[in-house]
Amino acid sequence: MTKHRSFNISGLYAVTPDIANTELLIKKVEAALQGGASMLQYRNKQANYKLQIQQARAILPLCKQYQVPLIINDSVKLCLTLDADGVHLGTNDGNLAEVKARLGKEKILGASCYNRFDLAVQAQQAGADYVAFGACFASSTKPNAPVAGLDLFTRAKSELNISTVAVGGITLENAALAMQAGAKAIAVINAIFNVDDVKSTCFQFSELFNKS
Fold first, then answer.
1. Where are the alpha helices (DSSP H) in 66-144?
2. Exposed, middle or buried: residue 30 (CB in 10 Å: 0-12, 13-18, 19+)?
3. I need a surface site. Which of 128, 134, 155, 180 has the fewest CB within 10 A?
4. 142 has catalytic annotation
């Protein structure tokens, strides 16, 4: 067994919207997976823990079917309860090194680093498998988020050994800018889930990576 599993974190990283209707959420998630999302993060800031378990449990078999990792936002407990593929944490959501030890080498740990490269360095040292910088562009999900310059991705290419994810305000029109700067993956909520045709939109995002 290898000392540390290397995860290929790249492509379209779909992040679920705050939807209370589990049936509708499943429909949208399946469309995103059919459209080529390479990772999926379950995130519902408005749901209580009971609804989060219900929704994440419903999504997990779909992710397995499409062979896409399911990452849980914020909750290590929920990730371990469902045996999901990993967890994504913000700065105040727990000690990364301790969380990595709890998760084990087989699970993915992602960390939000906002606009701070020093946090990314610390996250890598603590065992994170990828770091996210953002908001890269004006974001309706987090309108007051600090702006993260795209030069962070360029710097990460030469100074970090883990993948970088661009997040915040990403659309079909600006995604290529983050990719050209060096982002390995793009995390998207509204631009894929708040549209009429989720599958087709995800396919268009996925195609950007095929062209790059």
1. 76-82, 96-103, 117-125
2. middle
3. 180
4. yes
Which residue is catalytic, options 102, 105, 142, 155? 142
Kindly indicate the confidence band of residue 13, based on its pLDDT and cuts at 50, 70 and 90. Answer: very high
Q: Which of 10, 38, 43, 100 is catalytic?
A: 43
Q: Which domains does the chain have, with CATH numbers?
A: 11-211 (3.20.20.70)
Q: What is the pTM of this model?
A: 0.95
Calculate what percentage of the chain has a pLDDT beyond 70.
97
Given a contact cutoff of 8 angstroms between Cβ atoms, the answer to whether 72 and 86 are in contact is yes
Per DSSP, 17 falls in state -
Q: What is the pLDDT of residue 16?
A: 98
Query: Contact at 8 Å (CB) between 115 and 149?
Result: yes
Whether the CA torsion 154, 112, 8, 177 is positive or negative: it is: negative
Q: Is the pLDDT of residue 26 over 70?
A: yes
User: Who contacts 90 (Cβ-Cβ below 8 Å, separation ≥6)?
Assistant: 74, 111, 112
Q: How many CB atoms lie within 10 A of CB 210?
A: 8
The count of C-alpha atoms lying within 13 angstroms of the C-alpha of 198, restricted to the half-sphere facing its C-beta, is: 21
Spatial distance between the Cα atoms of 176 and 181, rounded to a whole number of angstroms: 8
Q: How confident is the model at residue 142 (pLDDT cuts 50, 70, 90)?
A: confident
